[in-house]
Amino acid sequence: MTKRILFILTGGTISAHESDQGLVAGEMNTELDDIIAAAEEAPEYEVHNLMSIDSTNMQPENWVAIAKLIQARYDDFDGFIVIHGTDTMSYGAAALSYLVQNSPKPIVFTGAQVPLAKIGNDGVKNILDAVSYATSDNAYAVSIVFHGEVLLGTRARKVRSRSYQAFQTIDFANRAVVRGHQVLQILNQPTDMGELTFYDQLDTRVGVLRLTPGLPADIIQSYLKFADVLIIQGFGIGGIPQLAELHYADQIKQAVAQGKYIILTTQVPMEGSDYEVYAVGQSFLGDNHLIETANITIEALVMKAMWALANGKDFDSFKTMIQTPIDYDYLV
């Protein structure tokens, strides 16, 4: 049976054209029709021009708008393909992973490093690969399809700024790969995936502090003027300077006393954190208002914190939401 796909256009490099100020996101009019006509098994499809912006300008409310559109049209289609810029695609895919949970239907993000208007672009192949995956029988959940790979929306990161192989699944397996028109599934849909659930809120009062040598902890209070959740990226497997002159212990205790939520993670991309290992990490544990996050990407953690802050009732529910695995985002 022919699958029905909704294309959601948001702009990005794939749609861009030259201007006096450089590349500017535009609209894809007949280009998409021509590309899909070349698909081995062209689906029935509809196109929704939701927005046309550079992905650097994408904000949480834009991803909420995408989720709301998918919810409104969910019963009408077998899958959804979001054409999105690459620079914040990892954040967008993570956001949709929390806004639309346990989806038995695929929600696929794709785009390009080179505009369709330029010779040698990668957008045609990425769209065709996205169609191949979105119309395959085993497709599910939120994924990024790029350069022949199907990456988990909760574990993908942009790792190259120019090359066609722009994304990598961090510290985990891909969901599938696409070779020609054939989809080779790696991760099958879980039999106990849970009930499809939609959310429509993200709270942006989340900040990230990447520790650097010599950075005084006074900066924490500056962050907390604008954030209710502060994610601290410590060193290595989990370390925060104990030097008295930097005042990290005092500043973190003060933040907790103010009712702020502090999340401890690592700036190392692989293998996660464990603040129990070294004294410089363990000394900061023990406070019930600190959350350690094991192995989760910073992109997923930021968006999960926005989702949990918007939808949790209190600190305990917030902590539970952060530490409950969703589509392999949280690995212990």
UniProtKB/TrEMBL annotation:
<protein>
    <submittedName>
        <fullName>Asparaginase</fullName>
    </submittedName>
</protein>
<feature type="binding site">
    <location>
        <position position="55"/>
    </location>
    <ligand>
        <name>substrate</name>
    </ligand>
</feature>
<dbReference type="InterPro" id="IPR027474">
    <property type="entry name" value="L-asparaginase_N"/>
</dbReference>
<dbReference type="InterPro" id="IPR037152">
    <property type="entry name" value="L-asparaginase_N_sf"/>
</dbReference>
<feature type="binding site">
    <location>
        <begin position="86"/>
        <end position="87"/>
    </location>
    <ligand>
        <name>substrate</name>
    </ligand>
</feature>
<dbReference type="InterPro" id="IPR040919">
    <property type="entry name" value="Asparaginase_C"/>
</dbReference>
<dbReference type="InterPro" id="IPR027473">
    <property type="entry name" value="L-asparaginase_C"/>
</dbReference>
<dbReference type="InterPro" id="IPR006034">
    <property type="entry name" value="Asparaginase/glutaminase-like"/>
</dbReference>
<dbReference type="Pfam" id="PF17763">
    <property type="entry name" value="Asparaginase_C"/>
</dbReference>
<dbReference type="InterPro" id="IPR041725">
    <property type="entry name" value="L-asparaginase_I"/>
</dbReference>
<dbReference type="InterPro" id="IPR027475">
    <property type="entry name" value="Asparaginase/glutaminase_AS2"/>
</dbReference>
<dbReference type="GO" id="GO:0004067">
    <property type="term" value="F:asparaginase activity"/>
</dbReference>
<dbReference type="InterPro" id="IPR036152">
    <property type="entry name" value="Asp/glu_Ase-like_sf"/>
</dbReference>
<feature type="active site">
    <location>
        <position position="86"/>
    </location>
</feature>
<feature type="active site" description="O-isoaspartyl threonine intermediate">
    <location>
        <position position="13"/>
    </location>
</feature>
<feature type="domain" description="L-asparaginase N-terminal">
    <location>
        <begin position="4"/>
        <end position="183"/>
    </location>
</feature>
<dbReference type="Pfam" id="PF00710">
    <property type="entry name" value="Asparaginase"/>
</dbReference>
<feature type="domain" description="Asparaginase/glutaminase C-terminal">
    <location>
        <begin position="205"/>
        <end position="321"/>
    </location>
</feature>
